[in-house]
Amino acid sequence: MNAQDDVHDEGGRRLDQIRLTGLSATGYHGVFAHERREGQTFVADVVVHLDTRRAAAGDDLAHTVDYGELAQLVVAVLGGEPVDLVETVAERIAATVLARPHVQAVDVAVHKPQAPITVPFGDVVVAIRRDRTKLPAAEPYRPPTGQVRRGDGRHPVTADQPGARSAPPLAEPPAPTPEPAQPVPVATAQAAPPVPARVSVADALSGGVPTTDAGRRAHDAGPDGAGAVLVGPAPTGAVPTGVMPAVPAGPAAEAWSAPHEEPSYSYDGPPTELMAPVVDVERTAPTSPAPEAARTELMAPVTDVVEGELVLDAFDEPPAHPVRAVLALGANLGPAQDTLRQAVADLAATPGLEVVAVSPLARTAAVGPEQPDYLNAVVLTRTTLAPRELLRAVQAVELRHGRERREHWGPRTLDIDVVVHGETLGVTDDLELPHPRAHQRAFVLQPWAQVDPEAVLPGLGGGPVALLAATAPDRDGVRWMALDWLTAPVPAANAEPDGAGEAHHP
Ligand SMILES: Nc1ncnc2c1ncn2[C@@H]1O[C@H](COP(=O)(O)OP(=O)(O)OP(=O)(O)O)[C@@H](O)[C@H]1O
Ligand SMILES: Nc1nc2c(c(=O)[nH]1)N=C(CO)CN2
């Protein structure tokens, strides 16, 4: 492989490659009538540049490009609608490949070995590179509905549900109930990590042992079948259990609606499948060609749409399928453990948001100005809310618990950050995804790694969460974690362990 063939990501890291060579078909491209009439062999080589780590970490096709599917698309362009120029064929292939999720850049070489050249020759090749800064000057190929079948049994797929596209409305934010500032009381604690297993809300709040794998089962369960335990809306102070059905097992075929569409959401995969596709790019930029739309998926804010007075962007797009979202909770004022419990119940009661599992509770030294220790937890959810709707929903929960923003990184009764929402990456004035500081915060990463040991944080600075947690600058500030914090009686403030409420400097 030549170094000049490499493509690098924004951090300067060389992207991985998937190469397909010698794809061939009889095509009818050319400027001469006989070429249009008789056809000839066209051959394509394609190099896809992408980051394959996440797919490899979870052994999950959903996070990479299916080369079989790609090969079909390329051959369909070669043998498809006739055009005059090889350049146009190459451009069309590039557009088609770039419209696939995860693809950062593509090299395309189209060979025309039987070209009408009047001297002896070996081959004629048009070779191009296209990426998200140099977009293809062609429309991607869109196969007719039903032409390509997808799904392999390991990754069951479901048909797109039109009804699933709009998220339920948010609940009205309830009236704020400010709490007086107090040091942090906590329930049963145990020494800092390792904490052996994840805690499922369903288990914890039904009084079961909170160290089972039920959280993971729930997180892996699908939207349509039966069998998995999950939480439903809860009255204040408790998160009752409900049922989230699972996707039927076995292979399933999905009709193509557009070439950019992700393999649909599967709950059978490993926990690293936490991030699922979010932005239906066709709906995001209905009038844009697909390469633009695909870019929208990566850079959410690029396509602002003015609707009346409101400027909308991709963060306002509800996902086509429920996606997994990770929320980080923190509190260091007032009855923090109670507040966090209530917050979990409030989140579970939010329409369009389902709480799947809750991490152990971590006691952490404050990062930032001098202030009492925090209690931190991470909540794994599944949501049909758009990223910005989710932000508003968590802010409504913050508000309900008297959240005020007086000091940057200062003490607070409740803070809830959206760490990730599906696979959405983007920056706007009010929302950045993934959360820009999550990758360096042990107070987020350690609880997250406990509840989902194989989680991977997407985006710049991302990677396996457990690894990031082990190297985060504030890792020594994570003092201990409590497994039974959702159910155990909260001790009185004077019964807290040593060091509680002390200010700490990282
Ligand atoms: N992923 C995100 N999750 C939550 N808020 C975000 C996110 N991205 C941007 N924001 C914006 O950040 C603003 C400030 O949030 P907040 O007051 O919670 O910050 P903070 O807790 O003091 O600091 P930090 O963001 O470092 O946790 C919010 O009003 C929100 O609009
Ligand atoms: N340990 C800890 N430190 C913090 C936290 C937090 O949740 N935990 N939140 C902050 C602002 O969101 C600032 N500093």
UniProtKB/TrEMBL annotation:
PROSITE patterns cross-referenced by the UniProt entry: HPPK
Lineage: superkingdom: Bacteria
Residue ranges with Pro residues bias: 170-183
Pfam family, one: HPPK
Gene Ontology terms, MF aspect: 2-amino-4-hydroxy-6-hydroxymethyldihydropteridine diphosphokinase activity
Keyword Kinase: yes
Family recorded in the similarity comment: Belongs to the DHNA family.
Functional description taken from the UniProt entry: Catalyzes the conversion of 7,8-dihydroneopterin to 6-hydroxymethyl-7,8-dihydropterin.
Protein name as it appears in the record: Bifunctional folate synthesis protein
Gene encoding the protein: folK
